[in-house]
Design a protein that fits this description.
single chain, alpha/beta, Rossmann fold, 2 domains, 9-stranded mixed β-sheet, 7-stranded antiparallel β-sheet, 18 strands
């Protein structure tokens, strides 16, 4: 602490241990009401932060949340292109208007205020950081349930400004399955710890690629190390996203919102619970595990406000296939007219994790199951009538 400390950290230039990080907070625009803010970060570039930001935001929007993206990656602003947004932001008496994607996601990015999207940004760090702060203070975001901030790589001026100036509720660290994963996670983790920002979990991008002919998983960048790093630091692995050809092709034409992946939806729900974001669903799946030899499995559900937990015992009815994917059907023992359908993945110990399905995939799987029960062929051509 400085000898003559007046407790006014905002005006003080001393770098002492007593400095309060919250003293640098700046108020948002008077016409912005943002409930929760999530930063998407990494210790290095090229790991897919912008993609994870876009997919998480799209997932939040599908769940019914009013969603926004603040593109803080000023020198590489790819968010508008991924969403197919090319119109220029305009001003109003209330503040700068964010542009809106086809799916209703509000966003602000440097590309939305530049005359030419391909013009280089040859600015010094403080200028870039100042612009990002203005995206918070000068943009009239309106009512937003959750805002995602696409951070630039590393731990420089912009992340520092965001963590000091905005009320960030937590960060997601993005990495890839390379030897550098330890360094990537450690750098981001150290900065979050220094700034007092909670780490919500890790997302591994480009985990593997699937052979289009035989379906074999190929570890293009080597074996995943994310689980070991998560255990080492006491963190949660939110998702492992494989390389999929359609990701690049759809992002290139501004259709990222059409990419729906169960891994990302499950990851968002975990994050939503962690930051206390009010759930829009009456009930959501917490966790369940299926033993390959089990005849019964117990599902656990939580009420909307988290005050009640219900356990439902189910009979393992059988496994069936549709569109080349396997699903498991579970029948509640106290309601023979109901059925639960989940995807599942094999664990190292031989058990399986059940995977919640989005509405579209559930309907498709349910139709396939109905046709199997009617001893009819599934329209997808992949279902085996002999499987139950």
């Amino acid at each position: 602490m400085a000898e003559k400390c007046d407790k006014d950290c905002a005006e003080c230039k001393e770098n002492c241990d007593e400095r309060d990080p919250k003293s640098f907070r700046v108020a948002g625009n008077d016409n912005s009401r943002v409930k929760k803010i999530i930063g998407v970060v990494s210790g290095k570039g090229g790991v897919g932060k912008s993609l994870i930001t876009a997919l998480m935001a799209a997932s939040a929007s599908r769940e019914g949340y009013s969603t926004a993206i603040l593109d803080a990656d000023v020198t590489g602003p790819s968010i508008p292109m991924m969403f197919g947004v090319h119109a220029k932001a305009s001003a109003s008496p209330l503040g700068i208007r964010p542009e809106v994607s086809e799916g209703g996601i509000r966003m602000m990015s440097l590309n939305l205020i530049m005359d030419n999207e391909t013009d280089p940004v040859i600015w010094r760090g403080p200028v870039i950081a100042g612009l990002v702060k203005q995206f918070w203070t000068d943009v009239a975001w309106g009512d937003v349930d959750v805002m995602f901030i696409d951070m630039p790589p590393g731990t420089g001026d912009v992340p520092l400004t965001v963590f000091q100036s905005l009320p960030v509720d937590g960060i997601i660290i993005v990495s890839t399955p390379q030897e550098l994963v330890g360094m990537i996670v450690q750098k981001a983790l150290n900065m979050a710890k220094t700034m007092g920002v909670p780490v919500l979990g890790l997302v591994e991008n480009m985990s593997w690629i699937e052979c289009p002919d035989c379906g074999k998983k190929i570890n293009l960048f080597g074996e995943s190390r994310i689980d070991k790093e998560a255990e080492k630091h006491g963190l949660k692995v939110l998702a492992k996203l494989p390389i999929r050809p359609e990701i690049a092709s759809r992002c290139d034409v501004g259709m990222v919102e059409s990419l729906i992946y169960n891994e990302i939806d499950v990851a968002f729900r975990q994050v939503a619970r962690a930051i206390g974001l009010e759930e829009t669903m009456n009930e959501e799946l917490l966790e369940e595990e299926y033993d390959d030899d089990a005849e019964y499995v117990t599902l656990t559900f939580e009420s909307e406000d988290g005050s009640e937990v219900e356990e439902v015992e189910c009979e393992v009815y059988g496994v069936f296939t549709c569109d080349g994917k396997e699903y498991i059907a579970l029948l509640p023992t106290d309601d023979e007219d109901d059925v639960y359908i989940y995807g599942y993945k094999e664990l190292e110990d031989g058990d399986y994790d059940l995977i919640d399905l989005d509405d579209e995939e559930f309907e498709k799987a349910a139709d396939a199951l109905d046709k199997l029960l009617d001893e009819d062929d599934c329209d997808c051509g992949c279902c085996d009538d002999d499987e139950e």
